[in-house]
Specification:
Radius of gyration: 21 Å
Bound molecules: pyridoxal-5'-phosphate
CATH architecture of the largest domain: Alpha-Beta Barrel
Shape: globular
CATH superfamily of the largest domain: D-amino Acid Aminotransferase, subunit A, domain 2
CATH topology of the largest domain: D-amino Acid Aminotransferase, Chain A, domain 2
Structural class: alpha+beta
Number of strands: 18
Strand content: 25-35%
Largest sheet: 9 strands, mixed
Order of helices and strands: EHEEHEEEHHEEEHEEEEHEHEEEHE
Length: about 375
């Protein structure tokens, strides 16, 4: 099968250079969108068709569209990075394409060939290349997603689907320097259950995490940590980030992929970087009690969360009903910061990409 070829319809109302420069000065995260978007339609009869780059704008949807009722939706998140020579790159996009297809299978959506996924990102970034910021630690955040858009209220997999990619310039995540975050342990709610959709990147998982996220905020915490849904003892992950524990014996522990944990590209990359540095990385169950004990006796020295958006975030303290782990005034761990630097150096072209992780988008 040959890769899809995207038609391009230029946006006649594209922002001026001045307007764009104003936005890129302080984009924040997820606030502004570029002038174009990608759409590809799918139907049972025609398969994937109409690959197009079109002006960014609202979608016309039938109120009976299945995604609006039953949440048949999946998404991805990756970044385009501008290097010092002006070229534009992305990081391991085939991993995101493969994961999109795993999510698609779980949500009974059609799979998009990985090469078409990568090509869809390339087509959008080429149309909107001026939107990739150049300041340190800024990027163009790419959001591919797939929705069921059949007008039908019966409960079954939709026979008509749309895949889209939108892009949003993003400022430096930690504008004031990387600072440890405080996280809240959710004991009442879980993110995923056995046989559920925890390993799929789908909107429904996020919808279910919003109430515990409010609970975290009410307790002065930035993120929620979820335990496994079966026993409520093992650490799964945060609402949108995987977690790592650094031990004093040069081992690093991260929860194993049980089916209820999202397999992060950042997680996978950190495992490889750490192993190449000589660390033993264990993917296994780790309980909240093990963390508590390891924090108390000093065998767990650093804890961090990771994901595409924030790369690596040091965790300073965990607050729970009745106890806390870590300290209010924690400083970022040494290995945490050094892995963060290595990974971002590769992504921004400041260090050689010896593993073939980068894919060029502007050529
Ligand atoms: C996207 C996501 C992550 C991080 O995955 P990356 O590929 O590293 O960005 C972790 N957990 C959840 C629930 C996610 O949705």
């Amino acid at each position: 099968m040959t890769a899809l070829e995207f038609s391009v319809e230029k946006n006649p109302a594209a922002r001026s250079e001045t307007e764009r420069a104003e936005i890129l000065e302080n984009p924040g995260f997820g606030n502004f969108f570029t002038d174009h978007m990608v759409t590809i339609d799918w139907s049972v009869d025609a398969g994937w068709h109409n690959p197009a780059v079109v002006p960014y704008g609202p979608l016309l949807m039938d109120p009976a569209s299945s995604v609006l009722h039953y949440g048949q939706e999946i998404f991805e998140g990756l970044k385009a990075y501008r290097h010092a020579d002006g070229s534009i790159w992305t990081f391991r996009p085939e991993k995101n394409g493969e994961r999109l297809n795993r999510s698609a299978r779980r949500l009974a959506l059609p799979e998009l060939p990985v090469e078409d996924f990568v090509e869809s990102i390339r087509a959008l970034v080429r149309a909107d290349s001026d939107w990739v910021p150049a300041e340190p630690d800024t990027c163009l955040y790419l959001r591919p997603f797939m929705i069921a858009n059949e007008s039908f209220l019966g409960v079954r997999a939709a026979q008509s689907v749309r895949y889209l990619v939108i892009a949003s310039p993003a400022g430096s995540y930690f504008s004031g320097g990387v600072a440890p975050v405080k996280i809240w342990l959710s004991t009442q709610y879980s993110r995923a259950g056995r046989g559920g959709t925890g390993a799929a990147k789908c909107g429904g998982n996020y919808a279910a995490s919003l109430l515990p996220q409010q609970e975290a905020a009410a307790n002065g915490c930035a993120q929620v940590m979820f335990l496994d849904g079966e026993t409520g003892t093992r650490i799964d992950e945060l609402g949108g980030m995987n977690v790592f524990f650094v031990r004093s014996d040069k081992t690093i522990v991260t929860p194993e992929l049980t089916g209820s944990i999202l397999e992060g590209v950042t997680r996978d990359s950190i495992i490889e970087l750490a192993r190449d540095r000589g660390y033993t990385v264990e993917e296994r169950a780790i309980t909240i009690d093990e963390w508590r004990a390891g924090d108390a006796d000093g065998t767990i020295t650093e804890v961090f969360a990771c994901g595409t958006a924030a790369v690596i975030t040091p965790i300073g303290q965990l607050k729970a009903e009745g106890f806390t782990i870590g300290r209010e005034d924690a400083t970022p761990g040494e290995l945490t910061m050094s892995l963060r630097e290595e990974l971002t150096d590769i992504q921004y072209g400041r260090r050689e990409d010896t593993r073939g992780w980068l894919v060029r988008l502007d050529k």
